[in-house]
Amino acid sequence: QKEVEQNSGPLSVPEGAIASLNCTYSDRGSQSFFWYRQYSGKSPELIMSIYSNGDKEDGRFTAQLNKASQYVSLLIRDSQPSDSATYLCAVRDNNNDMRFGAGTRLTVKP
Amino acid sequence: DTGVSQDPRHKITKRGQNVTFRCDPISEHNRLYWYRQTLGQGPEFLTYFQNEAQLEKSRLLSDRFSAERPKGSFSTLEIQRTEQGDSAMYLCASSLASGIYSNQPQHFGDGTRLSIL
């Protein structure tokens, strides 16, 4: 039983478009949610964290959280080819354990 | 400000050999995690320490795997009698967890890529 689920993609968007990445989780008691970016052969790099329902914006990135639906998303505005990477959703559950999804591979085409 | 450091970056060894990896966390971080990642998958939790205490170990972790953090600073992960299925990227992460900072995210090192021949 997967605890954090993501569409594996690949998700392909043209340069300048909005990329929308989605994640669902099974532990209703989860409190902390994170998005990491991972380039091929590199380690995950933290992009966003979100703890409350609603939207959180940071530059071109917006994280959205809906705890009732157990859903968290990441929007990337004005997508750039350098955004091409795998995006990992991570959820810290009530036991303080961090669970990762398998990641969504994003390709931004020039 | 130095990040999480892992050594070595790559390790190639023959099946049956023992290997040891080292992780140096961000200096003020009291939590240290080990993960394993294979191609196309997210990081899989192996174990974590708060200071020198190993607080949790994955149920899926074979007893060939052992980790230590003797002084609450750097950590080592040892794999004994390696098998081909152990080939993966081994990632270390650290975070600060104390009271109101319990929600702090984890910061990853560059990983050690293990290849078993």
Protein model, in words:
- The complex is a heterodimer of chains A (110) and B (117).
- With 110 residues, chain A is mainly beta.
- Chain A has strands spanning 4-6, 11-14, 19-25, 32-38, 45-50, 54-58, 61-66, 71-76, 85-92, 98-100, 104-109.
- Chain A is globular.
- The termini of chain A are far apart.
- In chain B, the strands form two sheets. In chain B, strands 2, 4, 5, 6, 9, 10 and 11 form a seven-stranded mixed beta sheet that branches. A four-stranded antiparallel beta sheet of chain B has the order 1-3-8-7, with no helix packed on it.
- Chain A binds chain B through residues 4, 8, 31-32, 34, 36, 42-46, 49, 51, 88, 90, 92, 96-103, and chain B through 33, 35, 40-45, 56, 91, 97, 102-103, 105-111.
Spatial gap, N to C terminus of chain A: 38 Å
> How many whole angstroms does the radius of gyration of chain A measure?
13 Å
Largest sheet: number of strands, sense, barrel closure of chain B: 7 strands, mixed
> Whole-number average pLDDT of chain B?
90
Unreliable runs of chain A, pLDDT <50, ≥5 residues?
Answer: none
- Total number of helices of chain B: 0
- Which two protein chains have the largest interface (Cβ within 8 Å of the partner's Cβ), and how many residues from each? A-B, 24 and 20 residues
What integer is the average pLDDT of chain A?
Answer: 92
Determine the structural class of chain B based on helices, strands and strand pairing.
mainly beta
Instruction: Please state the oligomeric state of the protein chains shown.
Output: heterodimer
Strand content of chain A: over 45%
Which features would summarize this protein structure in a list?
heterodimer, A: 110 residues, mainly beta, 6-stranded mixed beta sheet, 5-stranded antiparallel beta sheet, 11 strands, 0% helix, B: 117 residues, 7-stranded mixed beta sheet, 4-stranded antiparallel beta sheet
What layout of secondary structure does this protein have?
The complex is a heterodimer of chains A (110) and B (117).
Chain A: E1 4-6, E2 11-14, E3 19-25, E4 32-38, E5 45-50, E6 54-58, E7 61-66, E8 71-76, E9 85-92, E10 98-100, E11 104-109
Parallel strand pairs in A: 2-11
Antiparallel strand pairs in A: 1-3, 3-8, 4-5, 4-9, 6-7, 7-8, 9-10, 9-11
Chain B: E1 5-7, E2 10-13, E3 19-24, E4 31-37, E5 44-50, E6 53-57, E7 65-68, E8 75-79, E9 88-95, E10 107-108, E11 112-116
Parallel strand pairs in B: 2-11
Antiparallel strand pairs in B: 1-3, 3-8, 4-5, 4-9, 5-6, 7-8, 9-10, 9-11
